[in-house]
């Protein structure tokens, strides 16, 4: 099914100069960029984005990390784009993130894990509106 999903290249991806490398991974799997922008995300936006994680031990560190510099928000479109982007990203638990995935190849910490991708059709719809209200 043709789907759209939200991917974020988190601030460490930008700082480490991995934007091109990361974008290439989705393009290789034939996802197509529909929209892309650089954002300095504020607390309100990030709290809304990560509302399911409010109260978790890592929540404050996660939001500080996401506010630590500019990030890249991307709308990708393609066949099964939602699941595909998550496979390309790799497991959340860094010890399980396989080589060949973005996290498996470039991240060494479960918090500082370079990328976000929507986890379901409902999340994708919500997150696309949140990050691209102008569309
Ligand atoms: O990003 P993903 O959907 O794979 O994972 P999540 O469970 O929705 O968690 C959101 C983000 O919180 C992760 O990408 C990590 O940056 C962070 N996190 C963390 O720091 N420690 C955990 N135990 C779980 C998640
Ligand atoms: Mg998630």
Q: What order do the helices and strands come in, and which of them pair?
A:
Blueprint: E1 2-9, H1 11-15, H2 19-28, E2 32-39, H3 43-49, H4 59-66, E3 71-79, H5 81-89, H6 102-106, E4 115-117, H7 121-131
Antiparallel strand pairs: 1-3, 1-4, 2-3
Residues 53, 58, 62, 92, 110-111, 113, 116, 119 line the site of cytidine-5'-diphosphate.
What's this model, at a glance?
The chain is of the alpha+beta class. The chain has helices at 11-15, 19-28, 43-49, 59-66, 81-89, 102-106, 121-131, and strands at 2-9, 32-39, 71-79, 115-117. One of its GO terms (molecular function) is ATP binding.
Characterise this structure.
This protein has helices spanning 11-15, 19-28, 43-49, 59-66, 81-89, 102-106, 121-131; strands at residues 2-9, 32-39, 71-79, 115-117. The chain is α+β, with helices and mostly antiparallel strands and 135 residues long. The chain has a single domain, classed as Alpha-Beta Plaits (2-Layer Sandwich), CATH 3.30.70.141. A four-stranded antiparallel sheet has the order 2-3-1-4, sandwiched between helices. The mean pLDDT is 98. The structure holds cytidine-5'-diphosphate and magnesium ion. Cytidine-5'-diphosphate (CDP) is lined by residues 53, 58, 62, 92, 110-111, 113, 116, 119.
Labels describing this entry:
7 helices, binds magnesium ion, 135 residues, 4-stranded antiparallel β-sheet, binds cytidine-5'-diphosphate, 4 strands
